[in-house]
């Protein structure tokens, strides 16, 4: 067995031999001008960005550092702080989803330091905020405030989230509570001013909407009352099973859903046409009216047909000066037309005198206004199509 002195001599010989070889042989793994930046980026101390997934075989140094950060043998407070710092690094790089994962992992450590936990919640709230998860962010801010009632960032997060959620009164309250703790905080002052401005605007808009709704309700009630007083019947879409109380009998075996009280379901034409029945300041009702031309499969729509006007008044405007382009035979002149309304339940037509008013035709016992839009069929008097069309249907003349 060699003595210590001999072992020392052997070591010196080995080192001397290594140095001699080092002088003669070129180091194969040395940095070069071409690869030095790439090589430096493999050293943890000089890395600009860490790899997404750390493979212990490829990056043993990083794996060792990561194991230190997540060392379960360390106190929970230290583990939570390390995960907080990790989340902060992700946050600075705008990797908010990864930041949330780190903050959540830190909270799962359940450390006893309420200050650390409050910061984890407020930081996670900030990450949620940047991702647009406002409700999650607000929930985290609420918990952070409970853990640390004087944590100003919790109030800032809470107020910011409430503004984004359009909860302006809540945002104002968050700001006020925070300013009681720190009256000169610039961010809280800005948030309070913003919340107050939006809150006042929302309250003003709500008052205007309430006044407008009240006015519209009053106008609708007056309109329906006028319709009822005139004896005009609205065909209301039936919902659910048919009940005996839903129909009224006219004595001739016909029936239809009756207009009940101030029900608006029978006045829904605005949804399809953009026009609706209205009552003017003189108490005259104006209806949207649809004319059908079955021979040519065409239609005309009058958005505001006064109940006091006659059909002939409109015929003269529609067909007096210029005939429609689809009337190639030039037959649709005002005095060469027949007007009908259809009774769908009885599958019959009722002829209307064009010189009568719209109101008189709507008051007929077999006329039911469908979807708030009266409709009428127009035919050319004596034409082959007219004779065939009428021969296939039961026809009545208005008395």
UniProtKB/TrEMBL annotation:
Residue segments, region Disordered: 199-222, 238-258
Domain of life of the native organism: Eukaryota
Keywords in alphabetical order: Repeat, TPR repeat
Ranges annotated as biased composition (Basic and acidic residues): 199-208
Start and end residues of each Cns1/TTC4 wheel domain: 280-390
Keyword Repeat: yes
Pfam families xref list: Wheel
InterPro entries reported in the protein's UniProt record: Csn1/TTC4_wheel, TPR-like_helical_dom_sf, TPR_rpt
Entry-linked Gene3D superfamilies: Tetratricopeptide repeat domain
Family stated for the protein in its record: Belongs to the TTC4 family.
This protein's name: Cns1/TTC4 wheel domain-containing protein
UniProt organism field: Umbra pygmaea
């Amino acid at each position: 067995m060699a003595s210590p002195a001999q072992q020392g001599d052997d070591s010196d010989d080995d080192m001397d031999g290594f140095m001699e070889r080092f002088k003669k042989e070129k180091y194969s793994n040395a940095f070069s001008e071409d690869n030095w930046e790439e090589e430096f980026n493999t050293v943890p101390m000089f890395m600009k960005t860490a790899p997404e997934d750390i493979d212990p075989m490829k990056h043993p140094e990083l794996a060792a550092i990561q194991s230190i950060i997540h060392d379960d043998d360390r106190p929970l407070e230290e583990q939570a702080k390390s995960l907080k710092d990790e989340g902060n690094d992700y946050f600075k790089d705008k990797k908010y989803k990864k930041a949330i994962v780190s903050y959540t992992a830190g909270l799962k450590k359940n450390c006893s330091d309420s200050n650390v936990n409050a910061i984890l919640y407020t930081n996670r709230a900030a990450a949620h905020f940047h991702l647009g998860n406002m409700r999650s962010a607000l929930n985290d801010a609420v918990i952070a405030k409970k853990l640390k009632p004087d944590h100003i960032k919790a109030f800032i997060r809470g107020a910011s989230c409430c503004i984004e959620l359009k909860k302006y009164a809540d945002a104002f309250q968050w700001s006020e509570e925070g300013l009681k703790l720190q009256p000169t905080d610039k961010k809280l002052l800005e948030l309070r001013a913003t919340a107050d401005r939006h809150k006042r605007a929302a309250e003003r808009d709500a008052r205007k909407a309430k006044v407008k709704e009240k006015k519209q309700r009053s106008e609708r009630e007056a309109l329906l009352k006028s319709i009822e007083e005139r004896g005009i019947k609205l065909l209301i879409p039936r919902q659910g099973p048919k009940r005996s109380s839903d129909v009224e009998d006219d004595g001739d075996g016909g029936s239809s859903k009756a207009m009940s009280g101030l029900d608006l379901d029978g006045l829904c034409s605005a949804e399809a046409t953009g026009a609706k029945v209205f009552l003017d300041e003189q108490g005259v009702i104006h209806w949207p009216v649809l004319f059908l031309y079955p021979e040519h499969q065409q239609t005309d729509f009058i958005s505001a047909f006064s109940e006091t006007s006659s059909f002939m008044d409109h015929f003269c405007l529609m067909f007096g000066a210029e005939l429609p382009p689809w009337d190639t035979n030039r037959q649709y002149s005002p005095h060469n037309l027949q007007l009908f309304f259809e009774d769908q339940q009885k599958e019959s037509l009722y002829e209307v005198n064009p010189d009568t008013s719209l109101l008189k035709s709507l008051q007929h016992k077999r006329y039911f206004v469908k979807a708030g839009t009266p409709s009428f069929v127009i035919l050319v008097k004596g034409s082959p199509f007219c004779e065939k069309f009428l021969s296939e249907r039961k026809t009545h003349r208005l008395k």
